[in-house]
Automatic annotation (TrEMBL):
<dbReference type="InterPro" id="IPR036390">
    <property type="entry name" value="WH_DNA-bd_sf"/>
</dbReference>
<feature type="domain" description="B-block binding subunit of TFIIIC">
    <location>
        <begin position="8"/>
        <end position="67"/>
    </location>
</feature>
<protein>
    <submittedName>
        <fullName>AsnC family transcriptional regulator</fullName>
    </submittedName>
</protein>
<dbReference type="InterPro" id="IPR007309">
    <property type="entry name" value="TFIIIC_Bblock-bd"/>
</dbReference>
<dbReference type="InterPro" id="IPR036388">
    <property type="entry name" value="WH-like_DNA-bd_sf"/>
</dbReference>
<dbReference type="Pfam" id="PF04182">
    <property type="entry name" value="B-block_TFIIIC"/>
</dbReference>
Length: 113
């Protein structure tokens, strides 16, 4: 992925409701044809979705980032899942004993390998 594609994807991801394709090229400060090619590559790679959108009778497209599945190994330390997933406590991560224990377990696994 080139720099402009990364910038476009980042911009689309930063807008939860999506970005109109007619606005994207202006935000990226590129011409609309180049923007269309970038959007096509992002669509082909499955990173975004494009939804037809009408505004004041003019057809455009709303671009939204697709949610990607999380790699389970990211939230596992051995057989223990990241404690923050089901946690309902108000805490700061730097002071959370459960999180620190989980990180310690993760570091221990890395060291043993």
């Amino acid at each position: 992925m080139n720099d402009q594609e990364e910038a476009a994807l980042s911009l689309i991801q930063s807008h939860r409701q999506g970005v109109r394709q007619s606005d994207l090229w202006k935000l990226l400060e590129i011409d609309s044809r180049k923007c269309s090619r970038i959007v096509k590559r992002l669509l082909d790679s499955g990173l975004i979705e494009r939804i037809e959108f009408r505004e004041e009778g003019i057809k455009t497209y709303l671009l939204r980032a697709k949610k990607r599945a999380i790699d389970p190994s990211v939230i596992l330390a051995g057989t223990e899942i990241l404690p923050c997933i089901g946690c309902d406590q108000e805490c700061t991560p730097e002071e959370c004993a459960m999180l620190l224990d989980w990180i310690y377990q993760l570091a221990l696994e890395e060291y043993q390998e």
